[in-house]
Write a structure and sequence with these properties.
The mean pLDDT is 95. The chain has no helices and 25 strands. The protein is globular and about 55 Å long. By secondary structure, the chain is mainly β. Helix content is 0%, strand content 59%.
Length: 255
């Protein structure tokens, strides 16, 4: 166990066992440095587990490879990658590049006590290949947003789970003004979310697809084709579905 770890440049934590940091891991405190944070195993690619209240790569990227992960707050100037085989809990995130959260064998929980946001200037890809995606304990409001700076290429927001995607009242946004595509998929179960805003929206559920708020692709950057496409093989329950009304913009609902 470690109380905290802080370095002028980079922090590299390696163990085949458990790594627990009760406070924060901070890199890049020195002027003009590129401070990366990496967590990994020694004989294998991942530690057994990693937990920290704060991971802050102030001038670089964060790459966390551990079978199980619990991170209260994730911050990085560049990309962040969470690579796990078991359960992942991510309370909040502010990422300067792409954010990738992957578990090959466990559930992924997003948000923590109170209202939280998980945002990245680049792409956001959250994938539970054998588990579910849900909300963290005590999470009252959650926003997940890609393309946060609305600059350059439209960086998409993608969530995919083998089991349910159960996000309650969460807002899923592709950019602050709907500049990027949003997609949500459950391979074997249902999808539940609050609202979504993007240049396009694709939702797919093996059972019920539900949204307690609006599904919108109604901005100037909305794309043509099947601008909003939702499939819920067990039914669709949504409040409002709307595109910008441009030529060639379709809404397709399949149940």
């Amino acid at each position: 166990d470690i109380d905290s770890a802080s370095a002028g440049q980079s922090v590299n934590l390696r163990s085949d066992g458990d790594i627990a940091v009760s406070g924060g891991v901070i890199a890049g405190t020195a002027a003009m440095s590129t401070g990366n944070i990496t967590v990994s195993g020694i004989t294998g690619p991942r530690a057994a587990s990693f937990s920290a209240a704060l991971v802050n790569a102030t001038t670089g990227q964060a790459v966390i490879r551990a079978d199980a992960q619990t991170i209260g707050s994730l911050r990085s100037a560049a990309a962040s990658t969470l690579d796990a085989t078991g359960a992942v809990s991510l309370g909040s995130a502010t990422v300067g590049g792409n954010l990738s959260v992957t578990s090959t064998g466990g559930d992924i929980s997003l948000g923590t006590s109170g209202a939280q946001s998980i945002v990245a200037n680049g792409r956001v890809a959250i994938t539970a290949t054998a588990g579910a995606i849900g909300r963290g304990a005590g999470s009252s409001a959650l926003t997940v947003r890609s393309n946060d700076d609305d600059l350059g290429a439209a960086d998409s927001l993608t969530l995919r789970a083998a089991n349910a995607v159960a996000l309650g009242n969460a807002a899923l946004n592709g950019g602050r003004t709907g500049t990027a595509a949003v997609s949500v998929t459950s391979d074997t179960a249902g999808v539940a979310l609050g609202s979504a805003l993007g240049s396009s929206f694709a939702g797919s559920a093996a059972t019920t697809f539900a949204a307690s708020g609006s599904i919108l692709a109604n901005t100037a950057t909305a794309t043509g084709g099947n601008t909003i496409a939702i499939a819920g093989l067990g039914g669709i329950d949504v409040q409002t579905v709307r595109t910008g009304g441009g030529a060639g913009q379709n809404i397709v609902l399949t149940s």
